[in-house]
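Table 4 source record.
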Amino acid sequence: MLIDRVRPSLHLSAAKPVLASLLLFFQAAPHPEASPQHFRYQRTIRLPSSVTQLTGESCAVLDASVFTHASPSLKDLRIYAGNTEIPYAITLSEPLQQDTDDARILNLGTRSGHIVFDLAMPARPYTAVALDLDAHDFIATAEVSGSQQIAAPSPTSLGSFTLFDLTSQHLSHSTSLPLAESSFPYLHVDLSLAPAPGTSATAVSLNRPEIVKSASVPPSREAQTLYTTLQQTSALVQRGRETVATFQVPARVPIERIAFTLAPGYKGSFSRPVRIEARVTPGQKSDPSLNSSSDPSSEDDSATSAETSTGTILSVHKSEAGREIAQENLTIPTAIGANMQHFAELQVAIENGDDAPLPIATVQLQMRQRRICFDAATVTNSPLQLFYGDSTLEAPVYDYAKLFQPSATPLIATLTPEESNPTFTPRTDARPFTERHPELLWIVLLAVVCILALTAFRSAKKLPR
């Protein structure tokens, strides 16, 4: 009786070596090591020839072809000097000052029918001040001066600026002061508002100190994000009421801004909606030279997913009440393309409504500037090469990248055009047997389940009833 009760556990114990063998059989193969001959593409990195001694950080800008032919997230990028691997870090352009600061309003009042006030500025360089004004349908002139202290006897004039709000004319408003880069701790503003033509407001109702609600200081223009132009076209077509530009976008290339340029000399005023749509092109791989096992874009080849975003472009050029008004916003931020593993057709459509089409000179696809940076002091006399195109590699882990602090003035290197690696040798397929034959996994698992079920059934028959 005791022996019969113990037998089921003995059967299960006998199955443990089988399960352990299966785990060893299905375990993943170790990731391969990087080697120059296994990369499909290479580019020479040219360091500045004007520098006699190469020291410190050196950076080169990455372009669209790197994203198309490298692995996702650029994890297979490697730099070699001869056979020596050079550590690197990749940077993404972003504002040096991440946040907008507040400017404290002091001594707010009126003088000779104008609104006057001082601004206590943040302790950093700045190139603009955005005023929050609780007023509509006006045209204003702002005289701005800077000083090291409040009520300085001889402040430095920073210019005269036109502010406006033309919402009743379905245009726009601008209440920002575009300054040359300055660092004065205090600004003095003399603001005079006049009603926009055709409105019922009066100068008295507008020039009230209480309309000045706040002031903010955005990041300096010199600290703004840099962009790289990926493609541009001047071949626009008219489709009904839309002006359409079409691009063929390679796989995995991030499109982060659409920029428009107008024909030289055009000074019209407009506000037009823009629709951006990217739709994948089924059947076209990110790299035709890769086979389906190493190219992630070959998965789900029938995909028809689309990404869409919208925005508005505007331009205001008018002369109102003797003042020239000028404002343009001809860029649209977007986030499209980076997650697409296929080539895509991207269409940029400007909705004209009942107005005449705009004289668009070019439409540009842009991404935030990416740089690959390395220590120039580690470079030997061997040519410096950037390699990519080995999808089996994992991302490298360098101390240099962990401790990297971007320099404000790195040495600027350049990349030569992409070319095929003349020493390229395909890797042998080192994937586990189960990855090459995934159907066997289900067959073996089904067999194990059947064996365990049979063992349990035979053991149950021998238990006393």
